[in-house]
Design brief:
The structure is a homodimer of 221-residue chains.
Chain A: H1 15-30, E1 33-39, H2 45-52, E2 61-67, H3 72-78, E3 84-88, H4 101-108, E4 118-122, E5 139-145, H5 152-155, H6 157-162, E6 165-169, H7 181-191, E7 196-199, H8 208-218
Parallel strand pairs in A: 1-4, 1-5, 2-3, 2-4, 5-6, 6-7
Helix pairs in contact in A: 1-4
C-alpha cells in the first residue's frame, strides 16, 4: 500500500504579513522609517501632522493618507509642501475600515521613497481594525482625544496595546470637560505599560515637540 | 446528449439580511420598535441614553449594548433599571468592529421583548462598518460630536447616508472650539438631505427632548 507523504508547513505567514515584509524590505532599502498613525475619527491625527511639519527641520517627511473616500486630509498635508499619496479604500478596496499592507504597497510608487527620512501613514479613523493589520511599519502611534472619554483603553484594548506611542490630544479643552486625565493615563498604562504617553494640544502646538523628539529617536537622531 | 437544467436563484438575500428579517418578524410579534444607534467611539451614545431614560415616561425601554469587550456602557444603563443585554464581539464573534443581525439575534433571548415598547441597540463605536449591516431595525440614528470636525459626513458618507436621525452632540463645547456648526449641518445635508438633525448636549440635557419626541413618533405616540 502506497502512503502519501504529507509535508506540513508551519508558521506560515498570512498574505498581509507577507506583503508587510516586502514593504519593510523596501523601507530598509530606501533608509526610510515608517510610522503607522491611528485613532478614532476626529481625534486630531491630521492637525497633529500639520503642527509637526514645521518642527521637522531637515527631516524629509512623506505621508500616506488613508480614508474611505475623499482627499480632505491629503489636501491639508500637501498644502504644507509634503509629498502625499492618498489611499481611498472605497476605490477598489471594498470600502475597508482600515489600511492593510497591500493598500500601502499600492501607494509606495507614488512617493519619492529614496528621498524620505520619515514616512507617516495616517490610517482610516477607527479604533478597532487598523490595529489588526501590520503594514511593514517600524513603530505604531495613536492619538486619543480627551473628548472621547477615559474608558476607551478598556473598551478598545487591542489598539492601545498595539501602539508604541500614545498621543493624548485636545488638552486645551481639559478645563471645559468633566474628564479625569489621571484615570485615562492609568487605563492606558493598565492595557499597555510600555507605551510612551504624550500630552499635547495639536490646536495650540503645546507638547507636540516631545512627540517630534520621539519620532526623531526612531530615526536614530 | 443530456443537458443539465440549471436553476438560477435571483435576488437572493445574504445571510445577514436573512437573519435581520427574522429579527424584524420577532420585533413585530412583540410589538417593539427597534433603533440602531451608531457613532464614533466617544461621541456620547451612552450619555445620550442616560439622559433619555428619565424622559421616557411610560415607554418601556430595553437596550442592547455592543462592545468589542467589557460591559462599561451596559453597567451604566443597567444602573438606571433598564433591561440590558451586552454583546461582546471579542467573545465568539472574532472581535468584529460592528454588530450584525446574528449577534443581535443571539442577544434577544436575554431581553423581555414582549414587555418592551422601544429597543435601542447601541452599536460598537465605529463610523464605517456598522452602517453596512442591517439588524432588523425600524430606524437608524447616529451621534456626531462637534469635537470630531465638520468634515466627517464627507469622509464617512455611508454612515451619514444610512441614518434617519443625526444627533449633533457636545453643543456645550461650541464656544471652546474652532468649529463651524453651519458647515457641519450643510455637509450632513449634502450627504443625506432627508435625515432629521438634532442639536443636543447630552451632558446638560439640552435638546435631548426633541430627539425623544422623534423616537416617540416612531412608536406611533
Amino acid at each position: 500500500m502506497h502512503r502519501h507523504h504529507v509535508s506540513v508547513v508551519e508558521g506560515i505567514l498570512d498574505a498581509n504579513d507577507t506583503i508587510a515584509s516586502s514593504n519593510r524590505a523596501d523601507f530598509a532599502a530606501a533608509a526610510v522609517t515608517v510610522v503607522n498613525l491611528m485613532s478614532s475619527p476626529g481625534a486630531g491625527k491630521t492637525t497633529l501632522l500639520e503642527r509637526l511639519v514645521p518642527m521637522l527641520h531637515g527631516v524629509a517627511l512623506g505621508v500616506i493618507e488613508g480614508d474611505v473616500q475623499g482627499s480632505y486630509d491629503g489636501d491639508r498635508i500637501a498644502a504644507l509642501h509634503v509629498p502625499v499619496t492618498q489611499i481611498n479604500t472605497a476605490a477598489g478596496f471594498g470600502g475597508e475600515c482600515h489600511l492593510d499592507a497591500n493598500m500601502v504597497r499600492s501607494a509606495l510608487g507614488g512617493l519619492p521613497l529614496e528621498e524620505l527620512d520619515l514616512l507617516i501613514v495616517e490610517n482610516v479613523g477607527n479604533l478597532v481594525c487598523p490595529a489588526e493589520f501590520r503594514i511593514g511599519e517600524h513603530a505604531r502611534a495613536m492619538v486619543i482625544s480627551i473628548t472621547e472619554g477615559e474608558d476607551k483603553p478598556l473598551k478598545y484594548p487591542l489598539m492601545f496595546h498595539a501602539c508604541d506611542a500614545i498621543v493624548i490630544n485636545k488638552l486645551d479643552l481639559l478645563a471645559h470637560l468633566d474628564f479625569d486625565l489621571d484615570l485615562l493615563r492609568a487605563n492606558i498604562a493598565a492595557v499597555n505599560p510600555q507605551a510612551e504617553q504624550f500630552l499635547v494640544s495639536a490646536r495650540s502646538g503645546e507638547g507636540v515637540a516631545a512627540w517630534r523628539d520621539w519620532l526623531l529617536t526612531l530615526l536614530g537622531c
